[in-house]
């Protein structure tokens, strides 16, 4: 396959011009919530304006085709079948519907990693309390990489599920999800991937990953509105999952005392949701696809690598990212200054970052004795100049 050409300076300038927020602040909190393109905001606002004038059901009827197309765009984004995706309010909702839909029995084993997000960890523990499952942790090695050999060695007849977060919330490392998928397929074990930070940042191909289930949020690297997300369930797995919530969208009546689940992944979603946000999600995915996920990923890797290099050149700053695969999330600390204070001082200079708290990925953070770090997450619309500005302000902070 030919290597894609990088985004040109003119293309980046155009993308920034189509995102009014870039003129106001330097936004390095894309792992929290990206600045949406203007077209996404305008799409949501225009739909809401029409609802206010014509009515909610009437406006929905007018936009049926556009709303329906969002499912096709999701399928295209992750290389899935249209019947394998459903729209939900967030990745946490999607992940919870999928994980809790598994028919766990006492003694079933779930294999996880040290990079799991707090919501997922709570889900595992809750299943242990309610169903008597066993949780097996595969730690990263001394280089910060997930041990595929340890995973192979851990699998046994009680292993019911392998669940991993592709890109953790508080580290720039990444999990080898395709290689994990190969192991899961070889042993015929269910495989659930949290792709909350992945979609929109790099190409996500469920066939290449080999996952059975996947959850995604819209607000992060996809640049969609908050309150949007989607899930993926492989067609062959859908009937194996219990329905946690259902309504007349998820199922149809067979008789007065029985119903039948619909024959696609939309059995996992409910009828009532924001149509305006659904359109916004579709528009954001369309926008990302038009740029090209390969180009986006190339740009993000370049910017993140540059940021790490520049930060390491500043006395008093420690970059905490480890692992042979790294992404657009950069975590660091400033000697003698609390992460929250660093965030406050940067905000005063119109620079947005986030605080990566221990609670978000508790096992990983405790292992490395980190209470909190500063998280600066880049996107393709960021610039080298913005990185230099960040580093200049941080140098001032370290010398204050």
Automatic annotation (TrEMBL):
Listed cofactors: pyridoxal 5'-phosphate
PROSITE patterns the record matches: AA_TRANSFER_CLASS_5
Keywords: Aminotransferase, Pyridoxal phosphate, Transferase
Molecular function GO labels: transaminase activity
InterPro entries: Aminotrans_V_dom, Aminotrans_V_PyrdxlP_BS, PyrdxlP-dep_Trfase, PyrdxlP-dep_Trfase_major, PyrdxlP-dep_Trfase_small
One Pfam family here: Aminotran_5
Domain (Aminotransferase class V): residue spans on this chain: 28-390
Entry similarity comment: Belongs to the class-V pyridoxal-phosphate-dependent aminotransferase family.
Protein name as catalogued: Aminotransferase class V-fold PLP-dependent enzyme
Species name: Mucilaginibacter terrenus
